[in-house]
TrEMBL record:
Transmembrane segments: none annotated. SUPFAM superfamilies: Homeodomain-like, Resolvase-like. Belongs to the site-specific recombinase resolvase family. Pfam families: HTH_7 (PF02796), Resolvase (PF00239). The keyword DNA-binding applies. This is Recombinase family protein. Residues 31-164 form the Resolvase/invertase-type recombinase catalytic domain. It comes from the Bacteria.
Length: 235
């Protein structure tokens, strides 16, 4: 396995790239095994199976499922059926996997087992040096994309913070609401509960944003006091 200049171990993608460049088994005398896939049950597999038969496949496995579905029974059967020296043949790369990383993972696993891979549409064949080189480039590209995503994920919050954007959940009370709460509390019949209802927050939120009320203020423990009714006068 490749060792990086600093002595650290390479990433998974780089290790897969090493697998993709590795030599094929000395003798490829195994069978050509085909795999076809359509996304829905209404679609037909005829064109794909005919192309695989014309390529010399002695057995063909076929799924009628979306490529995003990880439970593809026929693909699992095909991978289990393959033996060292065999070659897995697909009509096109997107029939085997829907992502570059998924494709690289499957092909690298096949090579570790001594199994070749061929895609008819793209004319890629890991049993040839040129085909192995193409997949090595694919693996390097996947690693590059992964690093760009990580870099963008890390830089995004930092750039937003530098622009003054507040990250995370919005505050329960705005500075204006806090000012209103303090002003209302100066009124003789105002209570924590009535102000909390007026501002649409809880009593605990009031205490959190107006911490000077927390210690032992009477308003903290008193129930709401209704406003007094005006005295009735006789006419």
């Amino acid at each position: 396995m490749t060792t990086l200049p600093d002595g650290s171990e390479p990433s998974a993608a780089i290790r897969q790239a090493d697998d993709l460049l590795g030599a094929e088994p000395a003798i490829l005398t195994g069978a050509l095994v085909g795999y076809a896939r359509v996304s829905t049950k209404d679609q037909r597999l005829d064109r794909q199976t005919l192309a695989l038969e014309a390529a010399g496949c002695i057995r063909i496995f076929a799924d009628k499922k979306s490529g995003k579905d990880t439970e593809r029974e026929e693909l699992a059967k095909a991978l289990d059926y393959l033996r060292p020296g065999d070659t897995l043949v697909v009509p096109s790369l997107d029939r085997l996997a829907r992502s570059l990383q998924g494709l690289i993972t499957i092909v690298a696993d096949l090579r570790r087992r001594g199994v070749g891979f061929r895609s008819l549409k793209e004319a890629l064949d890991t049993t040839t040096p040129g085909g192995r080189l193409v997949f090595h480039v694919f693996a390097a590209l996947a690693e590059f994309i992964r690093e760009l995503i990580i870099e963008g994920t890390n830089e995004g919050p930092a750039a937003a913070k530098a622009r003054g954007v507040r990250l995370g959940r919005p505050p329960a009370m705005t500075p204006e609401q806090v000012r209103h709460a303090r002003a209302l509390l100066t009124q003789p019949y105002a209570t924590i509960s009535s102000i909390a209802r007026l501002l649409g927050v809880s009593r605990s939120t009031i205490y959190k944003y107006v911490p000077e009320l927390k210690p032992t203020g009477i308003q903290q423990i008193e129930p709401d006091v209704p406003e007094p009714r005006p005295e009735l006068t006789e006419h």
